[in-house]
């Protein structure tokens, strides 16, 4: 059997709530199979499996994270632990020789991603940060409008992500950003990732304002990123505003808008775009499951030894900009992105 014909054998490291999306995606991906899931809370792995993939058979449950990493049936790990745990467990998974799909943010410090990169090169494993949204065809459609010149040169991008935080895990808001808490690491990383998707230049500086809760967690943030040459990225994200996940790009000849980035399976994606010479279009695309597309892409890369679409350079660049925005909000000054 060739690598192309076989399925990547996955283990899930943590009984996190996001498994509601990723567990069915791994179980349903054409080139993947789920072989194990682990949690440090006894019984939680089995409960997660029963809840999000009822009827799925042959999946082992482990009551420790180490046991899953020791499991030789597991070739690839999906890591959805709390943000501040990502770097530690990413390094452990790589040391165990596993390919790694790590939830965003991959780490809170660029130096940690550099360590992950070095470890992955040494072990020869595939590693990718889990920005699932990038695998939805709606973004490829907008990128085509740029590539074919319809929108002209991109001069400005605005990205807005929000929801009202109600029953989320406490760790998201009971600690400051240095410990992985706050909206930047949770949803702001999508906003700056969206800006960087469309402005093909390293960000130079960022100026941000934030609202903090009593634990020092940023619960809302707004800011402007200077990409040089008059190109600006505008972001705002919040745990205190009604649900939105959208971006708008403005070029020298026209603009385009993605109305709902956080597509759930079955949602109908809607894009709109216009040009100065009179075009105005609203496009409805076929529904697509970006979680499954992400898993299938990663599995194909791991099985075939190809570099994934989202590189570790991209992960480092996103982390660098997030950290600079956090610094700017705290200092009250624009900060260089270094
Ligand atoms: N891509 C996406 O669409 C998306 C969506 C949401 C979140 N995320 C990311 O995914 C990661 C997980 O987010 P999440 O909201 O799913 O996390 P979560 O449910 O809070 O779980 C994170 C970890 O905390 C532990 N945990 C969960 N419930 C617990 C409880 N009641 N008591 C003690 N520990 C508990 C679990 O580890 P054990 O199982 O070992 O106990 C779990 O793996 C984050 O990095 C987040 O940024 C991504």
Account of the 3D structure:
Helix 1 packs across helix 2 (44-52) and helix 4 runs parallel beside helix 5. The chain has 338 residues and is of the alpha/beta class. The strands form 2 sheets. It has a 9-stranded mixed β-sheet with strand order 14-13-12-11-7-10-9-8-15. A 6-stranded parallel β-sheet has the order 3-2-1-4-5-6, with helices on both faces. It starts with 7 loop residues before the first strand and ends with a strand. A hairpin with a 5-residue loop joins strand 8 and strand 9. It is globular, with a radius of gyration of 20 Å. It contains 9 helices and 15 strands. Bound molecules: NADP nicotinamide-adenine-dinucleotide phosphate. NADP nicotinamide-adenine-dinucleotide phosphate is lined by residues 14-18, 21, 39-41, 44, 80-83, 103-104, 130, 132, 169, 186.
Secondary structure topology:
Layout: E1 8-13, H1 19-28, E2 32-38, H2 44-52, E3 60-62, H3 65-70, E4 76-79, H4 86-95, E5 99-103, H5 110-123, E6 127-130, H6 137-147, E7 154-164, H7 183-198, E8 205-212, E9 218-226, E10 232-238, E11 240-251, E12 254-258, E13 270-275, E14 280-284, H8 290-304, H9 312-331, E15 335-336
Parallel strand pairs: 1-2, 1-4, 2-3, 4-5, 5-6, 7-10
Antiparallel strand pairs: 7-11, 8-9, 8-15, 9-10, 11-12, 12-13, 13-14
The structure holds NADP nicotinamide-adenine-dinucleotide phosphate.
**Helical proportion, percent range:** 25-40%
Shape: globular
User: Unreliable segments (pLDDT under 50, ≥5 consecutive)?
Assistant: none
What compounds sit in this structure?
NADP nicotinamide-adenine-dinucleotide phosphate
């Amino acid at each position: 059997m060739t690598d192309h014909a076989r399925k990547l054998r996955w283990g899930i490291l943590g009984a996190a709530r996001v498994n509601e999306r990723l567990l069915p995606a791994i179980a349903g991906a054409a080139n993947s199979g789920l072989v194990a899931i682990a949690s440090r809370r006894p019984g939680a792995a089995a409960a997660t499996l029963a809840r999000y993939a009822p009827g799925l058979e042959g999946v082992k449950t482990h009551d420790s994270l180490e046991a899953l990493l020791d499991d030789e049936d597991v070739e690839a790990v999906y890591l959805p632990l709390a943000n501040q745990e990502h770097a530690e467990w990413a390094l452990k998974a790589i040391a165990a020789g596993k390919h790694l799909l790590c939830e965003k943010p991959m780490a809170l410090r660029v130096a940690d991603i550099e360590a992950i990169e070095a470890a992955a090169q040494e072990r020869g494993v595939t590693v990718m940060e889990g920005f699932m949204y990038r695998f939805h065809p709606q973004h490829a459609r907008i990128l085509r409008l740029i590539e074919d010149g319809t929108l002209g040169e991109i001069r400005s991008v605005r990205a807005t992500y929000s929801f009202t935080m109600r029953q989320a895990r406490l760790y998201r808001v009971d600690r400051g950003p240095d410990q992985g808490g706050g909206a930047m690491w949770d949803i702001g990383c999508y906003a700056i990732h969206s800006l960087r998707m469309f402005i093909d230049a390293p960000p130079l500086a960022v100026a941000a304002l934030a609202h903090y809760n009593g634990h020092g967690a940023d619960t809302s943030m707004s800011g402007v990123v200077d990409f040089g040459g008059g190109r600006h990225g505008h972001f705002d994200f919040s745990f205190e505003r009604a649900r939105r996940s959208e971006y708008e790009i403005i070029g020298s000849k026209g603009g385009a808008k993605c109305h709902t980035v956080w597509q759930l399976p079955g949602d109908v994606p809607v894009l709109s775009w216009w040009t100065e010479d009179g075009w105005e279009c609203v496009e409805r695309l076929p529904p697509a499951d970006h979680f499954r597309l992400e898993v299938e892409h990663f599995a194909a890369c791991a099985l075939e030894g190809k570099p994934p679409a989202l590189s570790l350079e991209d992960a480092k660049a996103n982390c660098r900009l997030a950290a600079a925005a956090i610094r700017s909000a705290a200092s009250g000054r624009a900060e260089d992105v270094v």
